[in-house]
Specification:
The complex is a heterodimer. In chain A, about 40% of the residues lie in helices and about 15% in strands. Chain A is of the alpha/beta class. Chain A is globular and about 60 Å long. Chain B is α/β, with parallel strands linked by helices. Chain B has one domain: Rossmann fold (3-Layer(aba) Sandwich), CATH 3.40.50. Chain B is built from 9 helices and 8 strands. Chain B has an 8-stranded mixed beta sheet with strand order 3-4-2-5-1-6-7-8, sandwiched between helices. Classes of the chains: A alpha/beta, B alpha/beta. Chains A and B meet through α5 and α6 of A and α3 of B. The structure holds adenosine-5'-diphosphate and magnesium ion. Adenosine-5'-diphosphate (ADP) binds next to α1 and α7 of chain B. Magnesium ion binds next to α1 of chain B.
Chain lengths: ~425, ~260
């Protein structure tokens, strides 16, 4: 059945993707919806909520305001809050109610900007799209609006990281590991969109020599910077030794020559391809005997980087299954989009090895090996304790030495 | 690109006017798209020989998913006019206004304007602006000018007034503005005077005065506009002149802008 999730959970929504991407940028962020959405976001999808201040609000639209299409109250509330809080910008985020009654949030944002002089952005989200789309919209809008000054490249080579949010990367140290990897390559830290950087740093994003896109959510922003400043982008997350090295080479090349935009893992040959014969390793060679590929489920750049790392280092074939928004340029040939739960059930049939969020275990045959890759945008904080920074985890330890949690029941039928 | 939204009371002659205007623009050599924004889904029927296009809402109802190609919901009619109907939900259910917005974002996804590169886009929109969705055609990026079709009848003028009011409410939003009135006659007493008074009060011109015409009804029975059926008829000339005037105004506008 389409658009039905019967056995697992659903991914976070476009609304929350926008909130997450904007959380640290000093804006007044208002979800225009009935009260309640905000607690869903803060409880399940925002691990920074209790440790960091941010102006994320809900407009608490009422039934009668919805019937009357009373945008004036929203405008008044946002204008008065903005005058009091003096945010760097305001963001008005659509949700199911404004979607149904057709509220024109970009137009409302225009009025707020007119009245306050504060840059304001209206987002046509609806709470039904996925978080990936929300992150993409938010980072693109911030880039479009703020990263636009005339600027030259920084003297020392520098790198921006784009598309980094706790929804895809949690707060388990992955962000720091990515920066350490970049510094080891000789890059100075540029802006991070959007964890750990201020709006001012982001507005100087044009200075960087290269942009590292670490999720689909960062692709559109990287394209804007490419158009505006000619900055090349490379997509990938530096998992595993061999893949991190390859990604590093591509990033250095791109920074040096302005080389071509690409997802780094797309140039990794499929495991088992002729000409590669890594040093003997009994555990790996035993695993390699199995025909069935390791299925990696999740966001495209994260999962495809992880899969490529496994192939390069362990020579185990893989396939990525991507249930969220992405583009073909961010997938390798043979990888698939699986937007429906039914697609995944189908893809898991006969699977022998699966790396995915633990909530997907329900769909995987009991005979398969299952490797936990908790994904905050899917299971929230449930698996925080086993949610590891995979940039620093040795891959063979993960695949061959990993302990397996007790499994649940397989899918019915 | 000339982007017009035609508003007016139900049954007043919006689709008749829009269809004839579209045909007139086509005869003048323009590439035209007409988008019917009315659950009735009959806006373009006289451009299509009486067989309507599959409406977007009907398509979604049947397939339970969005069309992937434009040709699944768009059909070329007289003079190459590309005809699209939003359609609407089952009467008594759902939300027709939302259907219009959904159709627009779908057309954007299908890159309608990029691929067709039209000279003229006409939105034929239901009567009173009853909810947010029916104002979608006048939002930024869609129609730039609004034409209001009315007769001298009280209810038609009432609806016309509502539309002017709605547009006024949106003044600070950069939406479309009312360009003028099209008088589509119903032969009520002092019709011209009544409509002139209405227009003058709002500082609007009467852009065309279309007589009640049996030819319109005759060709409608054949699934045709009068432009197609009888291009030399006096009523056809009125539509052609209106089309010329709108194009000339746009040219003038362009001249001013540059
Ligand atoms: N000028 C006119 N002369 C004669 N009949 C007309 C004229 N304008 C409209 N009609 C008739 O009125 C009916 C309703 O017109 P239509 O264009 O469908 O209205 P709307 O789109 O506003 O609901 C149609 O059958 C049409 O033939
Ligand atoms: Mg009609």
């Amino acid at each position: 059945m389409r658009q039905v999730t019967g056995l697992t959970s659903t991914y976070s929504s476009d609304e929350f993707g926008i909130c997450s991407a904007l959380f640290e940028l000093g804006g007044l962020v208002v979800m225009h919806d009935a009260s309640g959405c905000n607690s869903t976001y803060t409880t399940h999808d925002e691990p920074r909520w209790y440790d960091m201040d941010s102006m994320v609000y809900i407009s608490a639209v009422s039934e009668i305001e919805a019937i009357m299409g009373d945008d004036d109250k929203l405008i008044r509330d946002v204008v008065s809050a903005a005058r009091e809080l003096k945010p760097r910008f305001t963001a008005l985020i659509g949700a199911p109610i404004p979607y149904m009654i057709g509220t024109d949030l970009p137009a409302v944002a225009g009025i707020v900007e007119e009245e306050t002089g504060i840059p304001s952005i209206g987002f046509p989200a609806n709470g039904m799209g996925l978080y990936t789309k929300g992150i993409s919209m938010a980072l693109a809008a911030v880039t479009e609006r703020f990263a636009q000054g005339e600027t030259g490249r920084s003297r020392e080579p520098s790198m921006n990281v784009i598309g980094l949010t706790p929804l895809d990367f949690s707060l388990n140290g992955t962000a720091e590991s990515i920066w350490r990897w970049a510094e080891a390559l000789g890059f100075r830290r540029g802006a991070c969109m959007a964890m750990g950087s201020s709006l001012d740093e982001i507005s100087r994003a044009g200075e960087a020599h290269v942009n590292l896109v670490v999720s689909y959510g960062g692709l559109e922003a990287a394209r804007i910077l490419e158009r505006r400043y000619g900055t090349p982008w490379i997509a990938g997350v530096p998992f595993g030794k061999a893949f991190a090295e390859r990604l590093g080479q591509l990033v250095l090349e791109a920074a040096g020559t302005g080389g071509r935009e690409m997802a780094a893992y797309r140039s990794v040959p499929r495991a088992g391809a002729a000409g590669r014969d890594p040093a003997p390793n009994p555990a790996r060679d035993a695993a390699r005997g199995k025909e069935s590929p390791l299925l990696v489920v999740g966001e495209s750049v994260y999962s495809a980087s992880f899969a490529a790392a496994v192939e390069l280092e362990l020579n185990i074939p893989t396939r990525v299954l991507c249930p969220v928004d992405t583009e073909d340029v961010l997938l390798r040939e043979g990888d698939r989009r699986t937007p429906e739960e039914d697609d995944l059930i189908e893809a898991f049939r006969g699977a022998e090895r699966v790396a995915a969020d633990p909530l997907f275990r329900q769909l995987v045959p009991e005979t398969a090996e299952f490797f936990d890759l908790p994904h905050e945008a899917f299971s929230g904080r449930i698996y925080d304790r086993v949610n590891r920074n995979m940039v620093d985890v040795p891959l063979d330890g993960f695949i061959f030495g990993g302990t397996k949690a007790p499994r649940g029941k397989g899918p019915r039928g | 690109m000339l982007k017009l939204a035609i508003y007016g009371k139900g049954g007043i002659g919006k689709s008749t006017t829009t269809g004839n205007l579209a045909a007139a623009f086509a005869v003048l050599g323009k590439r035209v798209i007409q988008i019917g924004c009315d659950p009735k889904a009959d806006s373009t029927i006289n451009l299509l020989g009486g067989t309507p296009a599959v409406s977007v809402m009907d398509y979604m109802r049947e397939h339970d998913e969005e069309p992937e190609r434009l040709d699944e919901i768009a059909k070329e009619g007289f003079g190459g006019v590309l005809c699209i109907e939003t359609g609407g939900p089952t009467p008594g259910l759902g939300c027709a206004g939302r259907g219009i917005i959904t159709t627009f974002s779908l057309l954007e996804d299908l890159e309608l304007f990029e691929t067709r590169d039209p000279d003229v886009v006409l939105y034929d929109v239901l009567g009173d602006v009853v909810c947010g969705g029916f104002a979608a055609p006048i939002r930024e990026g869609y129609a730039e000018d609004i034409l209001i079709v009315t007769s001298g009848e009280k209810m038609a003028l009432y609806a016309a007034n509502n539309i002017c009011q709605a547009v006024k409410n949106f003044e600070d939003r950069g939406y479309a503005s009312v360009k003028g009135i099209i008088l589509n006659r119903r032969n009520v007493e002092n019709e011209r005077e009544k409509v002139e008074a209405f227009a003058a009060e709002r500082g609007l011109p009467i852009l065309a005065d279309i007589p009640r015409s049996d030819d319109i009804i005759r060709f409608e029975d054949e699934g045709k506009t009068v432009i197609e059926g009888g291009p030399d008829l006096p009523v056809s000339r009125i539509y052609l002149n209106l089309a010329r005037r709108l194009l000339a105004d746009e040219e003038g506008q362009k001249g001013q802008d540059t």
